[in-house]
Design brief:
InterPro entries: DIOX_N, IPNS-like_FE2OG_OXY, IPNS-like_sf, Iron_ascorbate_oxido_reductase. The structure is a single chain. The protein has about 325 residues and is an alpha+beta fold. The protein is built from 10 helices and 14 strands. The chain has one domain: Jelly Rolls (Sandwich). An 8-stranded mixed beta sheet has the order 1-2-12-9-14-7-6-3.
């Protein structure tokens, strides 16, 4: 995992200080946040007010759901009545841009919680605990967008173009199916087609962010992974990782999108809890020679199974 210095190179920002009553404290924290996103497209967020009990409970319920035979999980999902607002991806079944992702996930769009569902007991408990953490992430996300809009003097607040319905939450399960598997790389380097992503890691962590602090211009996964060092993002207790997606870079050109990967020790299993968002579909997101709105962008890059469930309404 690298040295302790490398583990904590990604800056840690106090969410509480971003909204402190003291102007000096608030201004310093906001400046630090903007600097981190301009340098790395990522930072650690502490003092966010999300209960550790909620986070721990979601890890526990994720384990209860995922550590079952595959056929049980597939049947659970297919019989749930929520397949238009969720997506189950079995282990190592997804290939993105020709590269295999060695993980398994159950993705929830926010509107899934409005459906009655007919999950098994492990599925029902995972949906319920995911809802609590999803709601808390929505709160933090919208406040961060408001803070960044003010810091960058944007003419329109980023929070005004983000619907709660266009937020997603997913436990990602990293498991080894073959005892002889010695590949520590579980998810290859990539860029997210999102506004922001929050990652809550278990004790084994694994998320690594490319050091793009000296990179300028077009920051592609292909070019970055050839030259950049990847920094382990081990968190202090109570922190999560904030990653900037390509959509936000299209909206705020001064920020960089994060290039990141997941590496985990061989022979281990565990979880990341991921939350992410996309803007309203009619939001222009021109970038270089690309002239398109969010709908056009997502039509090119977003997972097909959820593409048509993203909404413009608030």
């Amino acid at each position: 995992m690298g040295s302790h210095t490398e583990d904590y190179k990604i800056p840690s920002i106090s969410y509480a200080e971003l909204f402190n009553d003291d102007d000096n404290v608030r201004c310093l924290a906001t400046t630090q946040l903007a600097q981190a996103l301009k340098a790395y497209g990522a930072c650690r967020i502490r003092d966010h007010g999300i209960s550790q009990d909620i986070i721990d409970n979601c890890f526990e319920k994720s384990r209860s759901f995922f550590e079952r035979p595959l056929e049980e999980k597939v049947a659970d999902y297919e019989n749930s009545g929520t397949t238009t607002n969720s997506r189950f991806v079995p282990f190592a079944s997804e290939i993105v841009r020709g590269e295999l992702h060695l993980d398994e996930t159950l993705e929830f769009q926010h509107s899934v919680y409005d459906l009655p569902g007919t999950w098994s007991e492990p599925g029902r408990q995972l949906v319920e605990t995911s809802k609590y953490l999803h709601e808390e992430c929505n709160r933090v996300h919208l406040n961060l967008l408001t803070c960044l809009s003010s810091a960058m003097n944007l003419p329109r607040s980023l929070s005004s173009i983000h619907s709660v319905r266009n937020s997603f939450f997913a436990p990602y399960y990293y498991c080894f199916k073959d005892e002889e598997d010695n590949n520590t790389l579980r998810v290859p380097p990539h860029i997210d087609p999102t506004t922001m992503l929050f990652c809550f890691q278990d004790s084994l962590a694994g998320l690594e962010v490319a050091d793009i602090s000296n990179e300028t211009g077009n920051i592609s996964t292909t070019s970055v992974k050839k030259v950049a060092d990847f920094i382990p993002t081990t968190c202090e207790p109570g922190e999560f990782i904030l990653l900037i997606g390509h959509v936000l870079r299209r909206l705020v050109g001064e920020f960089k999108h994060s290039v990141h990967r997941v590496k985990r020790p061989p022979g281990t299993s565990g979880f990341h809890l991921n939350y992410w968002t996309v803007p309203d579909l009619d939001t222009p997101c021109d970038f270089g020679n690309k002239k398109e709105d969010v709908a056009g962008y997502l039509a090119r890059v977003f997972p097909a199974a959820l593409r048509n469930t993203v909404h413009q309404d608030r």
